């Protein structure tokens, strides 16, 4: 017998875009139309604001106020505190290009505007869980990671994809802390990268990503801890060997490759059973795969011997 599990996208339409947000977006669109040049570019404010929400993914939580998402950040290149928003304004985001290399048909560099002409932007509201046990719910604008993989054109031998992020000596004071393994990078299996939940964000709250949240382009894999969400991507490399990411290089006893969210597997220094919601400071129980098991649990069925949850 075939048992059909009801997925998030089969929820009733009543859960769709709230009117206020639609109105806000129209207003933003109007404002955008008044601007010339840059605002009309695919990665600009217009494009972010015009993206339609994909209602398949229901967060089941209130969205976090934008000011909390943009003022409490992890971006070590700008410092180790959570207050890096003002320092991050120095990030140079234009021009921006991304290099596709490793096991690809043709290694190449692609300008961000050029890349964004080849994808369709959509909005997804995802829960996000940092390994430090804080969480947020964010409307990201972007496109499926599988589309980025398709554009890069990996060879069949590629088993992993690695995202390397910007290392701007002149704008990032954190790079002077020589003991950190710069540049920040992290990766996924090809199956994970092609999973429908894996997302590449270029905006949030209907606007281009602010620098502190990873402008102009970052990864979002909501079933994993937040450190698997590399910001300000400059290079996408395909390879046969499992990559060792920034956090695993820094402290492999605490951070590994898979880093899937699991409330039952404690961090060596704290419990992962619950999380603090940015904004309200409410504590709520953490869910296995951050509540996204229906989409991703199958990826890990045959990996019982692996350290899947840290
Ligand atoms: N380049 C880069 N990407 C990064 C980080 C970083 O320090 N540098 N921190 C990671 C961690 S630990 C988290 S929790 C998220 C935080 O994203 P946010 O600041 O948008 O909430 O970014 C991830 N991506
Ligand atoms: Mo994090």
TrEMBL record:
Pfam families: Oxidored_molyb. Its EC number is 1.8.5.-. Gene3D superfamilies: Oxidoreductase, molybdopterin-binding domain. The keyword Disulfide bond does not apply. InterPro entries: OxRdtase_Mopterin-bd_dom, OxRdtase_Mopterin-bd_sf, TAT_signal. Coiled coil: none annotated. Keywords: Oxidoreductase. The keyword Oxidoreductase applies. It comes from the Bacteria. GO terms for molecular function: oxidoreductase activity. Residues 91-247 form the Oxidoreductase molybdopterin-binding domain. PANTHER family: PROTEIN-METHIONINE-SULFOXIDE REDUCTASE, PROTEIN-METHIONINE-SULFOXIDE REDUCTASE CATALYTIC SUBUNIT MSRP. This is Protein-methionine-sulfoxide reductase catalytic subunit MsrP. The lineage of its organism: Bacteria, Pseudomonadati, Pseudomonadota, Alphaproteobacteria, Acetobacterales. The gene is msrP.
